[in-house]
Amino acid sequence: MQVPMSIRLFFFIFAFFFSLVVEAKSIRIVSYNCENLFDTVHCEGKSDMEFTPLGDKEWSSKKFQRKTRNIASVLTAIGEWEKPAVIGLIEIENDFVLRYLTERTQLASQNYKFVHRESHDERGIDVALLYDSAEFHLVKTEFLNVDVPEKSTREILFATGILSNGDTLHVFVNHWPSRYGGELVSEHRRFKAARVLREKVDSIYDLNPNSNVVIMGDLNDYPNNASVKDTLGAVAFDGKIEPKALYNLMYKYNGSGSIGTHYFAGEWGVLDQMIVSPSMLDSRSCTYCKPEDVMIFYEDFILEKNAKGVKVPKRSFKGNFFSYKGYSDHLPIYLDVQLNSK
Questions:
Q1: Any bridge partners for residue 322, and if so which?
Q2: Which has the closest alpha carbon to 115: 83, 87, 80?
Q3: How confident is the model at residue 24 (pLDDT cuts 50, 70, 90)?
Q4: Of 6, 36, 42, 275, which is most buried by a Cβ count within 10 Å?
Q5: pLDDT digit string (tens) for 187-237?
């Protein structure tokens, strides 16, 4: 029996639009400062004795396991119905911690792989990258040294991968030098980190000005500080796409007063950043996002009211006291990226 032309046309149109729906998808990219996720063993040459059973924090296997499970519960909640494809983690001590996080917690069923290398940081805290290899096929990693002679610090993790739509994505995970000793006294260290990062980004743009770049992590400076705005050149997006620029999507939270990623001395601040290349904001690209697609994960279960009644991060550590119900002194941030088939 011959199928009428009208019916065949209907099924053709239906199949065409269904294929568009299937091919268009999104992935979630997360950045989270985990607040001192240490194991319980002293690492020779590192100032980590406080995170041992005999140290000031009386750091035990029970506390470590609870802390790790708490971090995993946050990452699971951020994923909602779909697990995050790429996760930048800050203040991770070593491979053991990452293996425990990915193999012995709620994340075990997610089959995450990770990238990490021991840095020269004096305390032994590093950055790491978790990734879903089905969504982000890792092809290259590099660790950028931030040479600050008077105080060894962590490297910048640089990873390149192929997304499920065939596009290439360059990811940087950062934890810039802290403000220890004062903002002005320490700022030259963050300027150095910004210069190292900018030089690498420029080398990517030299090969392909339309590269997809995502920079995330705890920069220990705010979006309007000189290290971020001027040295790195990450500016607010005003709707105009300029070649070889960098756009800081966290500007919308900067100075809001009511929310941020870190609460200190009675004020919210935006230390954690999500910065993208121009092509990422071009809706004609196969891989793109909108400025409103970046969010702070501000949920009640990781918040608590302080003495003034302000909801602040439910941190793990208050001095040497460990809270089994705590998570981190930072709130995580995430970015939803749209993937269209080439």
A1: 317
A2: 87
A3: confident
A4: 275
A5: 999 999 999 999 999 999 999 999 999 999 999 999 999 999 999 999 999
Side-chain half-sphere exposure of 197, counting CA atoms within 13 A: 34
Q: Kindly give, in sequence order, each residue whose CB lies less than 8 Å from that of residue 174, ignoring residues fewer than 6 positions away.
A: 90, 127, 156, 157, 193, 197, 215, 216, 217, 218, 219, 273
pTM of the entire predicted model? 0.92
Alpha carbon 213 to its chain centroid, in Å, reads 13
Alpha-carbon gap, residue 322 to 324, rounded angstroms: 6
Question: Is the predicted pLDDT of residue 98 greater than 50, yes or no?
Answer: yes
Report in angstroms the alpha-carbon separations of 41 from 33, 58, 70, 113, 191. 21, 12, 20, 23, 33
Q: Which tokens in the block code for residue 38? A: 């240490």
Instruction: Describe the crossing of helices 95-103 and 61-79 by its angle, rounded to 10 degrees.
Output: 60
